[in-house]
Amino acid sequence: MGLQVYINGKWMPKELASVSVFDHGLLYGDGVFEGIRAYGSLVFRLREHLQRLWESAHTLMITIPLTKQQMERVIIETLRTNRLQDAYIRVVVTRGVGDLGLDPAKCKTPTIFVITDKIVLYPASLYKKGLKIITVPTVRNLPEAINPAIKSLNYLNNILAKIEAKNSGCEEALMMNHQGYVTECTGDNIFMVKTESGTRRKPVLITPPDYLGALKGITRQAIIELAQSRKIAFEARVITRHDLFNADEVFLTGTAAEVIPVVEIDGRKIGAGKPGKMTNILLGDFHRLTKKDGVRYRL
Ligand code: PXG
Fold it and tell me: Which domains does the chain possess?
């Protein structure tokens, strides 16, 4: 049996799971989504992902026709049907089928689908050697326009940035906001570590505050909590490229990448030019967390 996909109340083979050409998710990018991971029959921070999905939908005034508990059951049933213990889960809710006009009121019921599949892991060498990233000209969406906190189907902003990075031979793009402050990458949040001169001389873990325009990452939040439980000093602070260039360590966080070290930005070596100590500590802590923090299921 091939991959089974949940779509609008039913499970069907992936070849048959399709949406209408009149679906506003396709016509206008009018919808929301989540990317979630399961580790050894444990869906990592599923409730947090569902909360974010509901919040994204609420802002767009999409009423998801399921309760969070029902959605949780749908996700777990999809994993079980596909006999997946380690998986990537994509949950999508669109405005639904309408006509050839923007008016969302013409769309009577949201389209819901859930895809679970094997995860494609980044090569292990990337975690050992670290990533080279580049600042791109496309700035992150203004929070006053499409707020980046909404995980919507409008990813063109990030896609343009990704194209620009790849055109320059990099896998990830560093995105500024319209004022030139660091926000995040195309599919990951960003952190830096800096030991500041002064009396304490303790390394501080720093990430941009989300009001600058970034997704409130579930992995980002997990890293903040892990740092706090280790009594690592943490601050959400406005940072510039200059700050990043002169950081001791930089790393990215996201559901797909987990925690990935950055060793070069715009040709500047970061710290010692190899994955930093705190990055590796937090990466280890994160791996341990994925083995215990989530919703468990049986195949
Ligand atoms: N920023 C952006 C713009 C994202 O899209 C993150 C940060 C990290 O957030 P989480 O909650 O994952 O820690 C994301 C996450 C995909 C894919 O298939 C994208 C994401 C997550 C998983 C898969 O492109 N984006």
Answer: 4-117 (3.30.470.10), 124-289 (3.20.10.10)
Return d(Cα 297, Cα 86) in angstroms, integer: 11
Residue type, 151: K
The residues pairing with 229 across neighbouring beta strands, listed in sequence order, are none
Ligand 1 residue neighbourhood (C-beta within 6 Å):
35, 158, 184, 187-189, 215, 217-220, 253-256
Which one of 188, 252, 283 would you pick to mutate in the ligand 1 pocket, going by the greatest count of ligand atoms within 8 A of its CB?
A: 188
pLDDT per residue of the chain (299 residues) written in tens, 0 to 9: 799 999 999 999 999 999 999 999 999 999 999 999 999 999 999 999 999 999 999 999 999 999 999 999 999 999 999 999 999 999 999 999 999 999 999 999 999 999 999 998 889 999 999 999 999 999 999 999 999 999 999 999 999 999 999 999 999 999 999 999 999 999 999 999 999 877 678 999 999 999 999 999 999 999 999 999 999 999 999 999 999 999 999 999 999 999 999 999 999 999 999 999 999 999 999 999 999 999 999 99
Q: Is 151 a catalytic residue?
A: yes
- 39 in helix, strand or coil? coil
Catalytic residue among 118, 128, 129, 151: 151
Best residue among 152, 157, 255, 293 to mutate for probing ligand 1's pocket (most ligand atoms within 8 Å of CB) is 255
φ/ψ of 134, rounded to 5, equals -140, 145
Give the DSSP letter string of 138-197. SPPPPTTSS-TTS-BS--HHHHHHHHHHHHTT-SEEEEE-TTS-EEEESS-EEEEEEE-S
